[in-house]
Each structure stands twice: as C-alpha cells, then as structure tokens.
## 1
Amino acid sequence: MKIGIISALALEIEGVKSSLSVKSEINLAGFKFFEAQYDKLDIVVAICDVGKVNSASCTQILISHFGIDYIINLGIAGSMKNDVLLYDLIISKELVHYDVRKSQMIGRFPYQDTFKASDFLRNLAIKSANLIEKKYHVGRIATGESFVTDSKTKERIIKEFGPHCIEMEGAAIAHVAFINRVDFIVIRSISDNASASTSLNDRIIETASKNTTALTLEMLKELNLLES
C-alpha cells in the first residue's frame, strides 16, 4: 500500500512529515516529494503550492511517477456555513469547481460536475476523528482559483453549490484522482470565514493544521493495522 499525502503549503503538512521516517527528497517539475515510511506503509509527501493547476500537476506526478494507491489531501479552508467554526475539520463527501460552469463540467471530459471521495477513506477519516475526539463535518468542498473575501462572491457560491467550505486545491486533486481511478479524500481545517475581515497568518495556519495532522496520523495508524 502506497499513500500520497499532498498539501499546498509546507506549514500545512510539516506535522505529518515530521512524524514519518523520511528516506529521500526528490524534486520533479519544481515540486518537492518526500519518500517516507510509517511502519509498514510506504508514504510519499508532496508540497504542491497554491492553486488548481499546481495541485493537479503535482497529483498527476504522484500517481504516474510514484504509483500511489490512495491520496490524502490536507489543508485549510474558509467556512461557508454558520455552524462550521474556526478549526473545525471538514471531511469531504464530494468536491466541486465553483469557478467552472456546471454545463461545461458535465458536457466535457470527464463529464462530471462533482467528484465523490472514497467511501473507504471517508469512513476511515470519520472513525479516526471520533477516536481523537475532534469536531468534524462531512460534506461538500468547493474549489476555485481565488481567495474569496467578498460577500457577493461568497453568497453566489453558497447559493449555487452549498458547500461546507471553500479553498483552492481540493477539486483539482479530486479531478485528477478520478480520471486516474485512484481513491482520494480531502480534509480541511477551518482557518477563516471567507469574508473581508479574513486575516491569515502563520499562527492560524499552524493551529488549524494541528487538527488535520492529528486526523491524518490517526488514519495512518488505522491503515497500518490493515497491513498487519
């Protein structure tokens, strides 16, 4: 079993990487990949930087070059629901591109306007979140190429897509995983409320990432048991 763990920022994934036994670092197409071990599990950690093109390109390398079986995408996100609060975890049920017309997604390859996360990985994430006693929501994540802070854009996305949160990489990773028939899960920790008052800094990112780190490490423990 080989697992790819991908994040846009080093700060988001450092907690996971530091808990692994890193064997080598490889640079491909400008992206950093770390081949590592977690007991019986082979892991490749990838840092893709921000945005859909970067994350899609990096995901394809994970699949084509490293032969990944499962993809876990970690990161932060802006809340799109009143009951989704700062540092809550979001476990993806499905992902959508909020900046691409639905008719285009359905009418053109890969003829999908939503990308459903792996049932196996989602159930594993839910089990793990309960074990570590972290507050979580299961639902839709919306992805686009901009950092949303204005109320009109936020209201439009809520009306059209009804997501739990919004971010900039998840649907692109899901899209690439889908066309390659690789199981995936996207996990987000809430860092802001996607409003004009949003002010991200390293402290907020680090705090939010502690929750995704804890959840991911618990998932790896559970996956490792399956390898025994």
## 2
Amino acid sequence: MFDKDRFIQDCMTAVAEGQGAIREVVVEAVADSVGMMSELGEPEHAGITPIYRSPDLTIINFVWAPCMCLMPHNHQMFSVVGIYAGREDNIFGEEQKRPLRRQEPNLWESAT
C-alpha cells in the first residue's frame, strides 16, 4: 500500500542514484492508484499541494480541473509526472525543443 512518508524517503534515496531510479519509484507509486488516493485524499478541487521540498527534490501533488489548460512551458529541469487518477492531455507544437516521452500509460518524463 502506498505510504507518503516512504515515498518521500524512496525519492530522496533515488535522487542520489539518478533519473532512472526516480522513474522507478514513481512507476511503483502510480501502480497503486487506490493507495495514493487513500493516502493523499480524494481531490475536491483544482490545486497545487507541495508534499516535499529540498534543494535537490520537489514533490508536488497537482489536481487539474476538467478542461484546464496551461500555456506552453519548459520546467528547465528533469521531471517525472506520475498520473494516479484521471489523465493529462499534452499538445505538442513544432517549436518544442525538449519533448516529453511517454514511458508508461500513466508516466511522462522530460527529455534530457
């Protein structure tokens, strides 16, 4: 069962091991979508909730509202997006220089 504190610890350990290790931690976490929902709570409205912050790692729980759309942007860093409920629709433009790669049905990773 997903445990938020264990997830944070696993991510902290994975940072030292590299991007592949972080990806594996997220893959394991989103595989337990019911556990994540139970631990993080049922989304009631759109919002951004920081779960953990340090100079080396940021973990954020994003909840998008239906039909929500953001302007194109680049995080300027490596990121892994794990989707445990709902879906994310991405619109890719011709000018995009660092495309996202779909790694798993519910996992997106920025290209490095």
## 3
Amino acid sequence: MRSSEKFTRLARGFYADSNWVTALTPRSKHALDCFVVGASLRSPYVLSRESAAVFHGLPLGRAPTRVHIIRPARKSGRVNGTVTHAGKGAEIAEAVTVGGLPATNLVTTVVDCLCAARFGDALILADHALRLAAAHCLSPAPCARTDLEGFGESIMLPGQGQVSTTPSGASIGGTGSGERFVRTAFDAAVPIDVYRADLDMEAAERMRGVLGDELAKRPARHGSPIARAAIAEADPRAESPLESRGRALFLKAGLSMELQYSVEGASGRVYYADGAFPEERVLVEFDGRAKYGRWAEATSQALVNERDREKDLTNAGWGLVRFTWDQVTGRPDEVLRILRSALRRGKK
C-alpha cells in the first residue's frame, strides 16, 4: 500500500482518502481490502476463513492480514495479499451474502477458523457460535449492523462518473482514466450484540452438534484436535472474548470454572460473577471486558457500585480475583499463580 498526500493506493486502480485510511480500525481496513479484491475479480468467489469471519461479525484474536477467498477450479496460492483456496463449487452454491459480499456460511466459517486457531482463540469462536444459536441470532438480518450493506455495490466502474455520496456517508467513484477512488466512513463488521439476550440452551447444544458434524465431514488435519476440543468445551454463557480466553487458560491448566455463577452477598443481595470455584468459595471477574471489540467504559458510579459489591461478597466469605485482558494474554503464568493462591486459601 502506497500513500501520497491525499490518497492511499490500496491496489492497482484503487485509492482511498489517506486521512480516512489512517483512522480505520484493523477490522475495517480488512473489510475494505475484501471489497477491493471482490471488485477486481471477474470470476465467482466467496470470502472464506478469517475474512468471512470478519463479515459474519465473529470475534477474532487479531484482524486478518490477508484476504482469504475460495475460487472453484483454481489452485491454492498467494498473490498480492490474497490467499486463494481451491474449491469444488459447493462453497459457491452454499455461500451467503453478508455486508454485500459472498462468504462461506456461518458454520463453515466457524469450523474453518477453529481448525486454524490456537485453543484460546478457538474457544472464543466456539463460545460465540453457541451464543448466537442460544440467542436465536443465527441470521445477520435481525441482529447484525448493516454498515456494510450496499458498500460493495457502490463501487463504480471506470467512466461511470465522478465521486457520488450516499446518505450513510460512503462515497465511491471512478474517473474516465480508469482509476477508481474509494472514500467512505463506515465502521466495518461490528459483531452482533447477543449478550443481553435470553439463552436457549437446547439451541446451543444443537449448534454444538452441527459444528461437530461439520468438523467430522473433513479429513483429519493439523488443527482438528484443537477444533474438536473447543467445540466440546464451548459454553454459550460466556459473556465476552476475555471470559472465553481466561477459561481456555484455566482449562489447559486443569482448572474447571463455573460460568455466570449466582451468589448471595452478606446483605442478602444476589449477584452474578463471571466465574466461580464454589468449593473453594473463589469468584473470578474479568475487567475491561471487550464486548465485540468495544471496551466497556467504567463510570465513577459504576466503580462505586463495584466496590460495594466486592465488600458485600467478601463479608459473605467469598474470595474475589480479577484479571484483565493484558494479564490473561500477556502474563498467563501470573494469572495462574494468583488464581491457585486464592484457591489454596479457599480450601483452608
């Protein structure tokens, strides 16, 4: 990608406003890359793997750095930041349209990503897939943000006119010389908010079975054991990627935590902890939780309420440990040391 004072070259014939590109989130930048790739292809394709996951709104450990696509009757390979995976045509027939672009369906996308992820990221995806099913949000239509809708369709071919602006603020145009300019202000692929929905646990178990069946249809390969373990351990009650990542760390250490545990404080008030080890009377809270990539902002009143809650639980004989994203992902040994120390104290 080359930059000039006003425009950034995204690909041959595609440019975007430099200030806007600088301000893009990694997920939004990847979504734009997908639109550019799609506009440049002349044969059928579908987004796949992590690229499809971005458009389905699935939480990923990090934004993809390459656009993943499937093209029938093509050899696998990498060219100019695009990874092409060979397909047999079924992926095209079963593709869905998400945010204006064709992508592998949700189940295929989840299992593809599970097979390519480490256990922590795989559990985040599997938890989220079961949560979508439990919240009856498997279709993007009622739950997903539509910031991407119409964006790809707005790309104008050379000679179709100058820049045109849509009501959403996205503007894309082309010049008679064949260059295409892309300028927009969308926040791409913000995942679906299903954390406040009532959960249908039977639907979640059906999704677990569907994911397992999809994995079983594939030949055994590197990544299958991790995918299988993530599907088996997935829990729709996980309320954030941080909770899933923390639980993955605990499971690998042989520590099984109950999620969304109901506990009564000394005042008689009932609270819900992110996790708990009931026998040791230890509660676990994950702070600064990322709800679909957006960090929750703590107000001063919220901090006061949290201190009162912690005091009430402590007076009732519960120990409480807190962990942040930086601790869980960057200092896992420290997290396990703190948790095991609290568990030992709880047993006394």
